[in-house]
Amino acid sequence: MGALRFLATSLAAPVDRLSRGADSSPQAVYRIPTKSHPGAAHSLFLGMDATSAFEQFHGHHKGAWKMLHSLPEKVVDQADIPTQNDEHVAEMTRLMTSWRERGLFKPRPVASAVYGICVVLAIIASVACAPYAPVIAGIAVGTCWAQCGFLQHMGGHREWGHKWSFAFQHFFEGLLKGGSASWWRNRHNKHHAKTNVIGEDGDLRTTPFFAWDPTLARKVPDWSLRTQAFTFLPALGAYVFISAFTVRKYSVVKRLWHEVALMLAHYAIFAWGLHVAGATLKAGLTFYCTGYAWQGIYLGFFFGLSHFAVERVPSTATWLESTMIGSIDWSGSSAFCGYLSGFLNIQIEHHMAPQMPMENLRQIRADCKASAEKFGLPYREMSFLAAVKLMINGLYQTGKEELKLRSDRRKYSRAQAYLGAASAVVVDTLKAD
Question: Does residue 190 form part of some domain?
């Protein structure tokens, strides 16, 4: 991309282009009005350099580049731009260029299709077994729905290219899983734009039930802090039912009738399949609800391993900083762990290049590690068990420390009350004398 830089300046013009000179002279900025931008994550970069974000979200799309080059110019003084490491932006551009030249962003439809067909066949098998073992079959279909979540994740990131990716996503998220692809993209784009930034990454909204950091722990009641390390995973199975309501409401409010139709088709297909398999109403409901709860536990568990227990990231962090600080890898060299977790085991690489086909992410691990070392940033890779320990222990320690702080505050407040009462007695005694 050369000397081009991007800057987001105001709510009236959330994404701008900045052509930077060699000195600190005013910059040339090209503005996109809010109403002209269909995305959700752009407004999170107000007043900050958005070069890497544009490359990740729009680098695949020729139309976005064409629109960018047609915009009017605006002069922006260097003093109005927040201090960020320019070398990080240059490094991201260099890596993106290198990976594109190596063909690592080219879709891999055969691998994804085989993966998807295996999941579809497993769903059919689980439905067939539902009349005989509804709980076990429910766990099986829940695992399949979690895998559908991973497959739609690929489509949502346009891994199948601009033409087919969203159709791929709607099939797995809407028809097979009964969810909303649009709701997911709206939330997930923000997660990538501001990974682990409190108040901007929606995936950190786990309060008032759980918290991994002292800031969010203040919003969690005492009883939950005491038990959160033990109740986190079971609670995910309950939370998914609450989330289901939010997702369906989103599609109706936004008038996404094609997604509502896919949801209705999802229920109709599973009801018909269970009827054909000979499942009773009780067995069918047990099968479906077990599966729905299990997919929540499965998805939440693997997502939590890669993000929840690591540091929170400042809003002004560069893309390189937020990726390295806000993500970890576990068993990153294992293809088996990759498919088991929907490649959430290599989140550093995925956050560096979210539109790269998941099967290619292992090929850029050395590049990402070298960039982290170059700029003195953490590159954390660990075993599966170490990642589990980090996540669960993070919940336990956060709860323990916040409860201690609250206990100390209460003791201090009581001591102040006692001192106040004693002082009042002394004053009254002196007055009486």
Answer: yes
**Total domains present in the chain:** 2
Using alpha carbons, select from 339, 406, 330, 379 the residue that is nearest to residue 144: 339
Single pTM value for the model: 0.83
Between CA 10 and CA 43 the distance in angstroms is 8
331 within some domain: yes
Which tens digits make up the pLDDT trace of 253-299?
A: 999 999 999 999 999 999 999 999 999 999 999 999 999 999 999 99
Shared domain check, 247 and 134: yes
* 233 and 338 assigned to the same domain: yes
The span from the CA of 223 to the CA of 47, in Å, is: 40
Q: What is the pLDDT of residues 109-145, one digit of tens each?
A: 899 899 999 999 999 999 999 999 999 999 999 999 9
Structure-derived torsion over alpha carbons of residues 293, 295, 301, 304, reported in degrees to the nearest 10: -100
Sheet architecture: strand order including 15-19: 4-7, 15-19, 27-32, 73-76
Residue 248: exposure state from Cβ atoms within 10 A (0-12, 13-18, ≥19): middle
